[in-house]
Amino acid sequence: MSNLDHLNSWHSDWSELRAVVFGLGVSGFSVADTLNELGAKVIVVADKAEAESLDILDVLGIKYLIGQDYKAVSNRLAEFAAHVVITSPGIKPDNSLLVEAEQHGLEIWTDVDLAWRVRDKFGEPSKWICITGTNGKTTVTQLVEKMLQVAGIRAVACGNIGVPILDVIRDPANFEVLVVELSSFQLHYINSIEPIASIVLNLAEDHLDWHGSMQEYGRTKGKIFNNTSICCVYNVGDNKTSELLANSSNTANAQAVGFTVNTPAPNEVGWVEDILVDRAFIDDPSFALELATLTDLNSSLIVSPHLMANIAAAAALVRSIGVQAEEIAKALQDFQLDAHRIQLVLEKDGVIWVDDSKATNPHAAAAALSSFDSVVWIVGGLLKGVDISNLVSRYSKKLKAAIVIGSDRLPVLEALAEHAPNTRVFEVVSDAHEVMSEAVKVAKAVAVEGDVVLLAPAAASMDQFKDYADRGNQFASAVSKEVQE
Fold first, then answer.
1. Structural contact between residues 251 and 227, judged by C-beta atoms closer than 8 angstroms
2. 344, 338 in Cβ contact below 8 A?
3. b/e map 81-107, b = 16+ CB within 10 Å
4. What pTM, to 2 d.p., does this model score?
5. Which of 9, 364, 403, 459 has the most other CB atoms within 10 Å of its CB?
6. Starting from the edge strand earliest in sequence, which strands make up the sheet with 351-355, in order?
7. What is the dihedral of CA 386, 414, 416, 453, to 10 degrees?
């Protein structure tokens, strides 16, 4: 079974397939469960696993190798004679088992590849809208989901957004459209999917420790455009995204549409002051169709250029499949951002406290910094090999003070000293249990009326917190304790 092209439907004969599932997180478990339901022969390999997951594998009769050394696993897999390895996307491609699999000519998939093959479980295959970018993926994915649902389309957000895509494929709700958020890790491994619409929102340095170079990171992101049938959307303000589209394959029949926060040219969707307009999906592009206005936005949202860009991007995607203006406007009225995305925590004594813990890289932090004029900035964490200097230099005039946390403090302190010499800088060296409380205390002492205390760390969180949500929750808790009371 050297070629697996015949396994292109839920209703194909999967019984002879021998598959190794590499990793037993949320996506890995869904892969093992799906393959078992399809009747394939499965072995799960993982460094670690939750006891509950192993109990379920035992009940299902799925074999597994957990925490064993490379040689033992390699020998067992040689006996198994697998046809394919389906890897969790976070596992780096230089992993010894993946390298060995490639050397033996095995195909390497992710859960997304399997989902594409079996998307017809309940009949007519679902259509896919695929979304990637360094920042804004989740917000745009949720906006598209909301707009489609308001338009009466059975749509669901899935993929990197948290809901395993295979769980959605197997849901009897039988969704018409999957709004698939894809990370660069997933895209690295993905083989061939065919979206009806796709987008690269932006491209900036991130995960360079994983991909090895900015060139490879960009090439990986650009794979999302390949084989798109109806519409490829790019960022007018980010030339790298249009370059990725120009280098894509099998997109000649797809309309290329730009999105922008500025006045759109023909074949673009953008903003004329506070009005969202479409000049791409109308009969006469010399005119502009009003889609919505800023007054349509949920009042809980902090309007920022980043949010306006995300709205334009989502609107371009849904307009490509016929969603109407009034449906877009209604979706915006009900839409709320997830927690930790430029989220208002407190406004007291003229000081605004904002949680943007989801800003795990400089590009994301820039979206928040660009939204405010006088910022007390809580910054730092794990930089993942990314240089923060350009961010500091670009927004130095907005920085009233910087409070530096995290394990990679030295590069942040050096960037502030060089590029923001007039900014007051504080270093918090408390342990993980006290760091956010101490940072908030410092911010309270510094901030005055008109200032924004902004948690936008421009770095990952796992050095001192469980994840970015834990970091944001600790910030909100500290603000409640130290400021609100």
1. yes
2. no
3. ebbbbbbbbebeeeeebbebbeeeebb
4. 0.83
5. 459
6. 343-348, 351-355, 452-455, 375-379, 399-404, 424-427
7. 70
